[in-house]
Amino acid sequence: MMTSRLSILALAAALAVHAGPAPLLAQTSDGETETDAGPESGQPGTQSDPAETEAVPEPETGSATGADEGPARDALTEEGSGDGSGSTPTESDASPETDASDAETDASPEAEGADSDGAMTEEGPARDALTEGETSEPGSGASGDAADEAASEPAAETEPSDTQDTQADQPTEDATGQDAAEQSNATAADSGTQETASDPSGDEASAAGTSDGEQAAQAQARAPVPLVPDTPTWNTFHGQLSAQKYSPLTEITPDNVGDLEKVWEVHTGDVSDGSGDLPTTVWSATPVYANGLLYIGTPFYRVLALDPATGEEVWSFDSESRLEALTQPALKNRGVAYWEAENPVEGETCQKIVYLGTMDARLFAMDADTGELCSDFGDNGALNVNQWNDTNNKWPFSLLQPPTVAGNHVIMGWAGNDWKFAEAPPGSVFSVDPQTGELQWAVETLPEDIRQQTGTANVWTAMSVDEELGMVYLPVASPSPNYWGGNRTEDIPLATSTTAVDLETGEVEWSRQWVHHDIWDYDINSAPTLMDITVDGEEIPALIQATKMGFLFVVNRETGEDVWPIEERPVPQGDGTVEGEVYSETQPFPTKPAPLLDQAEKADIWWIADAIGFGQCSRLFDDLWYEGMYTPPTTEGEGVYTFPDSSGGVQWGGVAFDPESQTAIVNTSHITQYIQLYAREEYDEIQGGSGNESGYYPQIGSPYGMSLKVAMNWLGMPCWKPPYGELVSIDMKTGDVNWRKPLGSSQKFGFYMPESMGSPTIGGPAVTAGGLIFIGSTMDAKVRAFDIETGEELWEDTVEAPSVSNPAVYEHDGKQYVAFIGGGNTILKPQVGDQVAVYALPD
Amino acid sequence: MPHTRKRRSPLGATLIALAGLAGAAIAFYLYITPLTGVTGTIGALIVLVASLLVALGAVLMMATGHRVWRWLTVLGILGTALAAFFLHGWWIIVAMAVALVGVVLDGIGPVRKTEGAAA
Predict the structure, then answer these.
(1) Which of A143, A233, A263, A593 is 20 to 30 A off residue A65, Cα-Cα?
(2) In order of start, what are the domains of chain A with their CATH numbers?
(3) Contact A275/B at CB under 8 A
(4) B35 with A79: Cβ contact below 8 A
């Protein structure tokens, strides 16, 4: 019994640390404009000889070692020893043994702590470097000054808007989605293609940038990539530009997947559990297979080019980026992007390029063959994206998500810190030339007249592209601050939306807003998955947009119109306690597919947690206000119940799609959280710490601070009934669920809960023509294969830490491989890793 | 006056002690070996310590003959097995099963009398 209770506690505590997605939306930043295109301490280094990797100049706070038992590893095995934040250069031997850390202490730096730490507010060396750089950047001019001023203003001095009467302006889409498209087009002039971003020469960027003609001609010369590539392709974050995460490979099947074995693994050494000087690492990269190599970005902002068959290092690149939690509670990376010229010129460098973004807003471009920086790109190979950070510059544009590369466009959004400020940099998406970094176009998601008073509505996750249609699909986040909208009562049609823009010009083609006046942090957090489906005998070019809410929206990707009706339904209005707030009267609800979780009413209480808490869960649920989905935040009682909130639903892994059977596969979490707003004075008195997607957040510049908590009893046991995560198969011909099953095991202190209870999930699936689903994503740090037809689990293995990205499936020298990253995410549990694990059938 | 104690054959207790040590060894392996799924976890340490306590219980059974040690050892075996189940430490469960066999042997084995010194 004792052990049983302990195990239950294990789950409880594990879920206690679970919070939600938006790892891109945490921590603080000083908002300095970084314009120094070079690394802070010397030039970034490329090591083309693996033997030389141990000689890499160590990052400023790291320690250099390539040994198996390097400091970082030591840190992992010596909980609380405090010595292990090492930044270790590449260790590319085939299978060094690394201790998986299951550090039992939450390694996440606390947001409040970070709010007051030197990274954000003190005049540390890093800040000096940024400031110095800014003054020397050509073209940053007035905007840079303005940014400086904005950055130096105490944000708390900003008064929230009192605008009240804009409810009538809330978008009201009809079931066809036509209104949304019209609305988007109507607003494109002021909130679509940006007018304020300036290129290095100071020219205004517009829908047709300075080199649009050239670019358009080049792009037209390229054959568009079909939605389902003719050959096995895994050269982007989601495998293909369609974000289908689909491989046509058939070597591995349900019949032989049980024989799958690990053929190589690499430990990058770029890991920190946060116990030392470095923030903890969150590594959500998906390897990119291109140019006959496997490219991987690391949370220490390095790139590894590996032999896909053996894991041997071909070259590595170190950006020597600052290893500081500038905008996030952790060092984060989701990998790299790849571009190659239509007709690469033999002997010329940078005909094939790998791109790496950094937390401090630099985009590095390096030759894909050698790892040498491309000197024509930006400033000697590094593009300072922060040069375009010219409104409410409170943090650098963190480039954690690799750019989306389509044709001759490198398209990127950015991540920031909308938990902290009401006024923040406005959401913007940039397209730059792949070889020069010259700005081609930019999209602004906020109407120009309100950009100063709010912010974000940024794109921090992957995008998808239909090159044949010439459209890029942007998953747009919510405006700032996350949980109060009194400063942004105006219509913001592109916020919390899927927005289709022209690949060549950046003009908004259509947009569908999935949450009106978002005050729940329901960022659209994954690339929409593009698919051709047959519904009622009609072939439809469609996309499916997964959401944190657990809704799956399916629309025609050419027009934005509904495939199955999406209804505007009345939603709960406020209780009158929140100053300045104007709620949307309706919200969009899809009729098909069915929501991944039932948000209509509070989840059932888990009787074990309630009993052990002596009724605490029942009392908590009774004290939480809930009138159904989209019940707004309140200052009253214990706050408002949410199911789910920022922890999802669905995370950035998104939906995988098998085009043969027209089956969509998606993993989802069931997490109950609650939000409470606090008047500023009260918040200042009670404010506490916060981690990744959970805790107290100031919303500086608004009248309210807030807290976001997971519903648990006093022992940390989840109050709601399992399952906590599921894998779901959907027939996209009908919108019906084929099957759904609990996914993985929750785990804490090493104890696994029964798989029938499932696990919260972060990451996503990949599917193959061989009839398999590959997925990690679970707390138990296992990677699994399922039969796509039945959902039966056929294979599993353990990796170093939860695999919180999509796996990559590729073919090299005629052999099929499946690659997982065991990187971990503190949202899921405080277990981090640096492992690349690659599997194949035995020869 | 000489004090007489009833003691059983040490076979059962010896088996329990060996099983406990085996369980501890397996838990130690799980704790230190990468990619076992429980590497470096508190759970693995708990089971390691619990297994050692089972072995200690067996020694105390042999040394004192008190029934209380036997019952405590049985509880320890069951608890360790349960914890091992949630750790997915299947071989530890096997070790605890062997320990239970030891308990049975200890319970049904021949009793011998020993004389202790007068107090």
Answers:
(1) A263
(2) 2-529+550-558+570-840 (2.140.10.10)
(3) no
(4) no
